């Protein structure tokens, strides 16, 4: 009996210890996690100021000093490029290791390794769209360039020097929660993170929805509702610009009707035709309305200082740890400061002594789907012209935590991967909604490129020519590179690899069997649109059309709505004696162009009813008084936003269903506005706006009622509960959405329709203003902070200021010995040969 | 005696070894001591509970309890200024239980051993 009792108790003890040492479901290993000697409390940083310290490295060549300022931003002073990027890798890993690891796994389709089966479809998706394929192609190309090779390898060495000296107690807290170990870094990881940027910014695709509309309604209606250039636009390169370009021959669309019959089955060897070896790839989300960014620069004629000023605020899905990592990188011949991507060497947005630069997304059409005529369920071949071409196979092995690995085979054509064969698309996985089955994906992110070379050169650029040279090296995701220098030049260049296409090529699904539907190479880099020192003394971009239709090449048929660009350009036209505050205030502008365009019409039509009920009357009264700013406490903003959404649904939802399997997309904002204003009547029969005044009244009023019901339902009866910030609920979620690591809710203004583009969880991921001069003065703010550790005071120490719309003066060290007051402590990396 | 021995040995042990070193420590210390079963359990439980609490406090105070407060939110607590304290008070219980059961097993083992010889 006693023996039994002993055995029972001992077994319970041991079983309990094992369970508490194990990750179970979403729960971390409890005792391991709460163990104060090695668990989460090891990540509870001491809030007092750290003291100077020193480490040794056998990789580096000379002594490196890293000065930390009061925001815990590192300022690296190195003697040579290797040491510079080594130190960048080291300090970035020190602050952001988990973020780098997790994002890399996300991009590479390797999340199942650490979170198990729930991530399997996501992993398959990333591999099937060729994320790794693209990253491998990029890496191969980048390693051919000695400078990029050095950057990537030094950076990886620095990260690994940090990882190698970690004890489990030192791992970032997320590793402890998810119970896995950091992995050593490789240059491929850096390429994957750059691919992730392409996935976010140049991965949108609505060809499938457009094709469905074309098949169902025909070309006339589609041309009317989805025009190739909006009625209202304010392009990046002013419409008056004349194009002095001797163009390469512009391809024409072929008549493909004669190609319908299948050719005899004769398989040609096609491996050589595989575009870039074999590989794998990325993410095709839906283009989202309002995902975008602003940048602009004005020349000395408009500034108080007599030097140009430049601003940039890239809008992304906000996360903690912050998307960007602030850093200064100094070697004897260059001294740049700004923000980097944790996981990639160099500075992406920033300035140096002579120039400043920033980026916004272009939104050119660089992703296309090709309909295939395939042979067999596991297709060995596909039709191309009058022959059959062989596919190649790429086998993807996905490791799954605590389970047997999953093996997936992806078939590649010369276009790119066949993302999903017929019947392969998973149920209930919305990433794949816009992916047609049995279609090949052609995507700029699969092409070999050496984009880091662009940033290497921009970081060191001294003048306009250096800027132009740097831009030649950038492929994807295409960006509007704004530029200003202290010699009073300003410029902007929508830049990247733009495929050479016939007009509208890729607006719909392309024919994978038709050689003339292939991309026809690229638009020569020197023909990319650009403008330098325009007469209006400013340049700007906000993701609108880069060019007016007079530009000789086709880039895309649709861009972000012009609202932000319009507001920015009107403000810059008027701007005189500007300083950094003029720019800061413009970045915070919440005026709605859309409301200016349509609200009077909506109100006057709706007011024409003499039987409005009290809540309709109240809404109309509030809207009449609203100043059309999306301010935090504006009830009018909520009413207008909900009303506009309801009107959009009333107009388009019958024709363009958004839910079921035959999902389509709505026409753009520009076309909706024209329809609302009656400028361009809707031509189809039974159109909801009808031909009569009455039908318009009724539609607007019904939509208003829908909006009011929705607001009441979500926020309560009292209109005072409908303040815009309460409705919008801005907050910054943690990358893995761990509740305690999210930011609190922020009561702030802005919307995806205004310059200050703060929506629920999307917005300016970095705000920067740079005043050039004999020595530059920069200002910037992150919706977060330098550290990725939720136990650091620098995890979100900038968030409050960001929410208020203030900027920090950025520390730019030129001679650290004379600027000791700006330095909190120093990390010295000694070379140890 | 069991209490203080487990506390000191576990402190030293955990500086170098994973948390589960408290299991053999509690088992052996208890097995070598003459105590009532419930006493052994309680002493070991309290030794680890208090040791972990003190060390946790030592880590959390310079952090102004920010991280412990965030962990409280992960555990589902509504935001509150004293969340960190709850986290420190609750987080120690599982390991303290292991120590308690290990000590109890130690006493049971000791009883077996004594009976045999």
The unreliable regions of chain A are 257-289
N→C terminal distance of chain B:
25 Å
Q: Which percent band covers the strand fraction of chain A? A: 15-25%
Question: What is the typical, i.e. mean, pLDDT of chain A?
Answer: 92
> Which structural class matches the secondary elements of chain A?
alpha+beta
Share of helical residues of chain B: over 70%
Keywords:
heterodimer; A: 833 residues; alpha+beta; 11-stranded mixed sheet; 7-stranded antiparallel sheet; 27 strands; 16% strand; globular; B: 117 residues; mainly alpha; 6 helices; elongated
Explain this structure to me?
The complex is a heterodimer of chains A (833) and B (117). By secondary structure, chain A is α+β, with helices and mostly antiparallel strands. Helix content of chain A is 32%, strand content 16%. The longest helix of chain A is centred in the N-terminal third of the chain and has 28 residues, at 81-108. The radius of gyration of chain A is 28 Å and the shape is globular. Chain B is 79% helix and 0% strand. Chain B contains 6 helices and no strands. Chain B has helices spanning 2-16, 22-32, 37-60, 66-74, 83-91, 93-116. Chain B is elongated. Classes of the chains: A alpha+beta (833), B mainly alpha (117). Chain A binds chain B through residues 2-3, 5-6, 9-10, 12-14, 16-17, 20-21, 30-48, 173, 177, 738-741, 744, 790-791, 793, and chain B through 14-15, 18-20, 23, 27, 52, 55-56, 58-60, 62-64, 66-74, 76, 79, 91-92, 94-95, 97-98, 101-102, 104-105, 108-109, 111-112, 115.
């Amino acid at each position: 009996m006693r023996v039994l009792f002993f055995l029972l108790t001992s077994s319970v003890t041991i079983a309990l210890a094992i369970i508490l040492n194990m990750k179970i479901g979403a729960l971390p290993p409890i005792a391991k996690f709460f163990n104060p000697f090695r668990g989460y409390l090891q990540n509870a940083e001491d809030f007092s100021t750290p003291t100077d310290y020193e480490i040794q490295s056998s990789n580096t060549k000379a002594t490196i000093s890293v000065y930390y300022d009061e925001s815990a931003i590192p300022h690296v002073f190195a003697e040579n490029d290797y040491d510079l990027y080594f130190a960048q890798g080291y300090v970035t890993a020190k602050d952001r290791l988990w973020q780098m690891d997790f994002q890399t796994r996300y991009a590479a389709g390797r999340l199942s390794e650490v979170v198990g089966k729930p991530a399997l479809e996501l992993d398959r998706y990333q591999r099937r769209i060729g994320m790794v394929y693209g990253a491998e192609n990029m890496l191969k190309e980048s390693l051919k360039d000695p400078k990029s090779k050095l950057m990537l390898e030094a950076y990886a060495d620095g990260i690994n020097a940090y990882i190698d000296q970690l004890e489990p107690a030192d791992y970032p807290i997320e590793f402890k929660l998810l119970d896995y170990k950091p992995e050593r870094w490789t240059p491929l990881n850096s390429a994957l993170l750059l691919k992730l940027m392409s996935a976010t910014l140049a991965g949108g695709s609505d060809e499938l929805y457009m094709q469905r509309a074309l098949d169902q309604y025909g070309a006339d209606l589609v041309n009317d509702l989805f025009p190739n250039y909006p009625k209202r636009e304010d392009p990046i390169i002013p419409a008056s610009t004349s194009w002095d370009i001797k163009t390469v021959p512009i391809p024409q669309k072929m008549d493909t009707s004669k190609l319908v019959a299948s050719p005899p089955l004769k398989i040609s060897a096609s491996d050589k035709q595989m575009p870039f070896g074999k590989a794998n790839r990325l993410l095709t989300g839906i283009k989202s309305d309002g995902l975008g960014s602003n940048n602009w620069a004005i020349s000395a004629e408009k500034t108080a200082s007599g030097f140009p000023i430049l601003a940039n605020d890239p809008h992304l899905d906000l996360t903690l740890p912050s998307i960007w990592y602030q850093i200064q990188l100094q070697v004897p011949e260059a001294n740049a400061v700004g923000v980097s991507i944790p996981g990639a060497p160099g500075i992406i947005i920033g300035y140096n002594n002579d120039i400043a630069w920033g980026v916004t997304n272009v939104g050119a059409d660089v992703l296309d789907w090709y309909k295939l005529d395939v042979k067999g369920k596991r297709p060995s071949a596909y039709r191309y012209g009058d022959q059959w071409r062989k596919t190649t196979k790429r086998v993807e092995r996905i490791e799954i935590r605590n389970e047997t690995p999953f093996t997936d085979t992806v078939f590649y054509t010369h276009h790119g991967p066949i993302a999903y064969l017929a019947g392969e698309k998973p149920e209930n996985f919305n990433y794949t909604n816009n992916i047609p089955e049995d279609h090949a994906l052609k995507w700029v992110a699969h092409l070999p490129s050496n984009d880091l070379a662009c940033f290497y050169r921009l970081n060191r650029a001294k003048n306009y020519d250096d800027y132009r040279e740097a831009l030649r090296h950038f492929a994807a995701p295409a960006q509007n590179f704004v530029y200003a220098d202290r010699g009073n030049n300003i410029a902007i260049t929508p830049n990247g690899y733009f495929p050479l296409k016939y007009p509208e090529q890729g607006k719909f699904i392309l024919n994978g069997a038709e050689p003339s539907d292939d991309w026809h190479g690229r638009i020569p880099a020197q023909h990319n649109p650009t403008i330098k020192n325009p007469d209006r003394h400013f340049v700007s971009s906000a993701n609108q059309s880069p060019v007016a239709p007079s530009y000789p090449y086709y880039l895309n048929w649709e861009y972000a709505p012009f609202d932000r660009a319009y507001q920015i350009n009107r403000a810059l036209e008027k701007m005189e004696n500007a300083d950094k505050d003029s720019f800061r205030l413009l970045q915070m502008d919440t005026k709605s162009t859309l409301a200016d365009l349509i609200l009077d019409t909506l109100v006057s039509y709706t007011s024409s009813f003499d039987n409005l009920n009290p809540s309709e009357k109240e809404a109309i009264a509030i809207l009449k008084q609203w100043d059309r700013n999306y301010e935090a406490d504006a009830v009018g903003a909520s009413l207008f936003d909900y009303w506009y959404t309801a009107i959009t649904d009333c107009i388009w939802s019958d024709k363009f269903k958004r839910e079921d399997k035959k999902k389509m997309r709505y026409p753009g904002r520009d076309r909706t506005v024209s329809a609302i204003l009656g400028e361009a009547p809707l031509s189809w029969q039974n159109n909801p706006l009808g031909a009569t005044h009455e039908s318009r009244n009724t539609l607007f009023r019904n939509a208003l009622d829908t909006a009011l019901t929705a607001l009441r339902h979500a926020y309560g009866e009292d209109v005072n509960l409908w303040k815009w910030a309460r409705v919008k609920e801005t907050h910054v979620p943690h990358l893995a959405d761990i509740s305690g690591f999210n930011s609190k809710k922020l009561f702030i203004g802005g919307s995806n329709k205004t310059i200050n583009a703060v929506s629920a969880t999307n917005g300016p991921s970095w705000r920067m203003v740079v005043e050039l001069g004999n020595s530059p003065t920069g200002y910037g703010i992150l919706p977060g902070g330098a550290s990725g550790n939720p136990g650091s005071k620098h995890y979100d120490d900038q968030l409050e200021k960001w929410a208020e719309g203030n900027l920090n003066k950025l520390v730019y060290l030129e001679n650290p010995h004379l600027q000791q007051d700006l330095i909190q402590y120093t990390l010295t990396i000694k070379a140890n040969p | 005696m069991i209490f203080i021995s487990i506390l000191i040995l576990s402190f030293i042990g955990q500086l170098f070894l994973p948390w589960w070193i408290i299991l053999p420590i509690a088992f052996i210390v208890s097995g070598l001591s003459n105590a009532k079963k419930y006493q052994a359990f309680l002493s070991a439980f309290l030794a680890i509970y208090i040791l972990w609490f003190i060390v946790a406090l030592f880590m959390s105070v310079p952090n102004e309890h920010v991280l412990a407060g965030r962990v409280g939110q992960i555990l589902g607590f509504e935001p509150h200024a004293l969340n960190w304290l709850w986290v420190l008070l609750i987080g120690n219980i599982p390991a303290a239980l292991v120590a308690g059961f290990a000590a109890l097993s130690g006493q049971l083992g000791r009883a077996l051993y004594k009976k045999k010889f």
